[in-house]
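User: Predict the complex.
Assistant: Input components as received:
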Amino acid sequence: MHDEALPAIAPPRVVKAGEPQGFLRMIGFAEAMAEGGELAETYRAMRSGASTSSRPSVYNTPGGDAANIVRCHSLDPEGMRAGFGISGPIHWSERSLPWRLRELINTVTSQANNCFY
Amino acid sequence: MSAHAEFLRVAAEDEALAARVKRDFRKAGLPPHEHALLEFVETLTLAPWEIGGADWNRLRGHGWKDVEIAHAVLGSAHFNYLNRMADGTGIRFEYSTAIETYPVPLAERAPPRESTTGRDDAGFPRPDPVAAAAIVQDLPSGEPAALFAAISVNPEAARGAAAWRRYHLRGSERFGERDRIRIALYVAGLDRCPAAVEWLRGAADRSGIAAAEVATLAEGEVPAGTGAFDRFLFEHARRLTQSPWLAAQEHVDRMRAEGWTDRDVLRFTMLVAYLSFEHRAALGLGA
């Protein structure tokens, strides 16, 4: 399955002040609101959505901006809506598994992918 | 470190459990039925082509209902998308956590199971015909009805997945529909998802992709004569598919050097990441 030379341990990428927060340009909530347009509407809708508004506060970022996993989609608001539009029905609906079980699944999935997220 | 281990800590109200799971779920002292479900999730992530009906029967034996197993598949499949987006775009970890960092040495990770008898389909759930029909009837022709019928256990998720797929196979200025289908066929080959290959045949034919090229791509192979930059794109798709943690700034810079904007790079990353969801949903649900 893996045909590249693999490092022994994947290094985590941690935010440091002044450093870019990803490989690509990302537009946060405040900047999007200032500019208006499709991204602003998308952020607004995501924040006011039923699944978002009921989400536990542990998911809020320290600075109050959209999480990096959301912001990394910001150059493509339609893609953001498509990728996260399915998140509510799967993870945060009445059909969803209990929160503890979902986070067990998420953690094991991320570990298997050697992903910090 | 792991964002979702931190969220697990809060969800479970148990920091010690979250730390143990983060280190190694097999040694976390979980009850047998949860251990079995997480083994299923790990296989779905690492080797989704290995999931068979026997795995569903095994989970049923532990008391899991079909709707619960289906949501474990959909949840993990969606997380496979998010993991590839996180690593493909190189985002930084912005949460604080009380849980100690436990690096995961790749060499110690449990290897994918080797199939000895081939994938068996008996044991996969059958979609509820009424729910499936309600989803399928709204699909444009040529779309994979079997995939969305399988997801119809959650109708909103099925509709969302259909719109999501449609978006990612739609051509953009930089990367047209034909190029997207070629990448999709290649990744379907890497993920050993023959159903996904079949679903793409009609679109491949309409896009003028020759049958021989379809066959090569469906094996997870790059066709001979592929130009240097296109070969790089296939290599990057392979990287994002099989070892997303190896995605680096240099790969983005390579695309930028070719005149790609950050939005172009993002759309390519999103396409490959979406395919990791689709193939795991298909293979995990038996579509």
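Chain B has 14 helices and no strands.
Let me know if you want any component modeled separately.
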